[in-house]
Amino acid sequence: MARILLVDDDPGIRDVIADFLTRHGYDVSTAADGRAMDRELAAPGPPVDLVVLDLMMPGEHGLEIARRLAVPGGPALIMLSAMGEDSDRIVGLEVGADDYLAKPCNPRELLARIRAVLRRRQEPVADGPGVIAEFAGWRLDLVRRELTSPDGVLMSLSDGEFSLLRAFVEHPQTVLAREQLLGEGRGREGESYDRAIDVQISRLRRKLGGAGAPHDELIRTVRNEGYMFTPRVTRR
């Protein structure tokens, strides 16, 4: 049973969503703010698998909380906000959220997004040859879901970023259309939102140091077609 933590300062929303998710088989805890969330995360018992986080709360802002949660091995994150503008959605993805929903949201849609994010987290990868992908000095462990930089630093990847990078290393030097990457980075239940893929790509480029000349970029934009992962990839 996956454990979900719902963080929202509105007790009515907390009760409705928590009850709905509980009836669909999840172990749900709730918190009214960042401090209460920290207590729940530190409590004994199974770790939290996914946090549903309201963006606008008193005290510590949801974006700051999201930045704290975006660490290697941390829970998946779905952000909720009454501000449904594209700019807010992009900011949510920029700070590391795996998905974003505008409030008020349909509990069934939230359930679908939760299932999609958790399914991507739990996708089995066969243990054996080929589970380590190496490229341009980087090392991606497909079992541990860890990215290590050329100088040995463990890099934080959101669930969406990991899924996209895995798609790239599995199809190097091949143009991948946005529609293909949308399925990898957002799940089939995710809306067809091209800008979300552009945001994820931008985040990956920054983490991979792709800010140099176009010919030095690891992820290259192919005009009107999609993106291509340029380095040679070896698997072991």
Tally of separate domains: 2
Proper CATH architecture of the largest domain: 3-Layer(aba) Sandwich
| Low-confidence residue ranges | 186-193, 210-215
What's the SSE pattern? EHEHEHEHEHEEEEHEHHEEE
Structural class: alpha/beta
Q: Tell me the strand order in the biggest sheet.
A: 2-1-3-4-5
CATH superfamily of the largest domain: Response regulator
What percentage of amino acids are in beta strands?
A: 15-25%
User: What profile does the largest beta sheet have?
Assistant: 5 strands, parallel
Number of helices, counting only DSSP H or I runs of 4 residues or more: 8
**Would you tell me which CATH topology of the largest domain applies?**
Rossmann fold
Net shape: globular
Q: Return the average pLDDT rounded to an integer.
A: 81
State the name of the first-level CATH class of the largest domain: Alpha Beta
Overall radius of gyration: 18 Å
Kindly state the number of beta strands.
13
How far is the first residue's CA from the last residue's CA?
33 Å
In percent, how helical is the residue content? 25-40%
Outline the structure in words.
With 236 residues, the protein is of the alpha/beta class. The chain contains eight helices and 13 strands. The strands form three sheets. Strands 2-1-3-4-5 form a five-stranded parallel sheet, sandwiched between helices. 32% of the residues are buried.
Could you give a short description of this structure?
With 236 residues, the protein is α/β, with parallel strands linked by helices.
Task: Spell out the key features of this protein.
13 strands, 236 residues, Rossmann fold, 2 domains, Arc Repressor Mutant, subunit A, alpha/beta, single chain, 39% helix, 5-stranded parallel sheet, globular, 5-stranded antiparallel sheet, 21% strand
